[in-house]
Amino acid sequence: MSPLFPALRTADEKEALRFGERALTYAELAGAAGALTGRIAGAGRVAVWATPTLETAVGVVAALLAGVPAVPLNPKTGERELAHILADSAPSAVLAAPGDLLPPALAALTRIDVVPTTGAADLPATEPDDPESPALIVYTSGTTGPPKGAVLPRRAISGTLDALAEVWAWTPDDVLVHALPLFHVHGLILGILGPLRHGGSVRHLGRFSVERVARELAAGATMLFGVPTMYHRIAESLDTDRELAKALAGARLLVSGSAALPVHDHRRIAAATGRTVIERYGMTETLMNTSVRVDGEPRPGTVGVPLPGVELRLADESDGIGEIQVRGPNLFTGYLNRPDATAAAFTDDGWFRTGDMASLDADGYVRIVGRKATDLIKSGGYKIGAGEIENALLDHPGVREAAVTGEPDADLGERIVAWVVPADPHSPPTPEELAGHVAAQLSPHKRPRTVRFLEALPRNDMGKIMKRALGSGKGNGNG
User: Fold this and answer.
1) 13-58, pLDDT tens digit by residue?
2) CB 295 within 8 A of CB 362
3) Count of C-beta atoms within a 10 Å radius of residue 218
4) Taking every annotated instance into account, which residue ranges of this chain make up the domain AMP-dependent synthetase/ligase (predicted)?
5) How many domains are there within the chain?
6) Is residue 323 a contact partner of residue 315, using CB atoms and an 8 Å limit?
7) Which single residue of 16, 24, 214, 421 has CA 20 to 30 Å from 409?
8) Roughly what angle, to the nearest 10 degrees, separates helices 242-249 and 228-237?
């Protein structure tokens, strides 16, 4: 198998990584990672304390070069969940920045401080040549039980990043800016390993702010990766920030992922900048499945078409909606220590069951309805996707944020419940007004039967709304 990062072997003085004021060229990154590979060579697995820093990037790159599976750890993980991940993955060491204070759960592991020195060091002469060799073990969010470790092989990483290079025309000239966490697929694999594989550069903001995004795009960055929460904040700032609009207009590619970007934010950004945000769709277990092509038709509300090499089908389809199933080189090899869960995740003919529900446009564009468990509502004999109702609610001027769930109903089977953060908390729209708005935009059977007002929606680290938390929450007002 060819090297994951060919540019590291050219000793180039081009900037590879920048975190705030700290940066490494490709030659310096090769030296820092090369020095670390000798210290971890032969380890079974290593954990990485995945802060948004140079040390995390160097640690993961070194592990990949050495052929040692890396387990990124979210520094915000609670004690119980962290203990589970460590017991399950059994790393022999933890990589961390010298100043990091690690929790007691990691005390039994050998600590290896990552020091991004700029001296010369030899890279391993060869990398693992088995494409199925484990590269990363990334733990799922654990919404249906303890987190499961998805074992991602080297071919999944290279295959996904090469496919994205084709559909996004990703080249060594691109400079990516983002502020995503480095313990998830989006921020780590796409946001750090992607630029390094293609010989480009990445500038990590450390912490997201609209001002930082505008500054980096104005200073030559060509690509922006973000989640819908970030793009929503950008959209809200565009009316009064002409420099931000100018900076976004100069970007080559704006990409949103990890959750659906509301249509109204698409429209606001496009109207102010002339740039359309591209959406893509992936999971921890599959990396990337689909994307809107950079040369394709922008179509808000869709996540594009399958990536090169990825097959996609809708299973158990009815009313135009079915479960997305995929197969291809982008897939994980299984859940660590969970042959039962691995077997249940695949069909007998080798398709991975995503649990995501979608419809297909006539030309193959995929429209995600939502998670089978939380976003598909069966009401009055209809299959209804929460996403389209959320977009309709967000088109109402009195709605700042919205989420839609289903709740048991003796008559309808499930009734549609809207959770709304009003634009003006002192003068929210009435439930009847919102129900009528949705009925007029979509159809009467898709209107919310209950509306609950909140100060904020519960979200995880990636900006995804945690709908299971909504189910037990208490809002004000109903209709």
Assistant:
1) 899 999 999 999 999 999 999 999 989 988 899 999 999 999 999 9
2) no
3) 15
4) 12-336
5) 1
6) yes
7) 421
8) 130
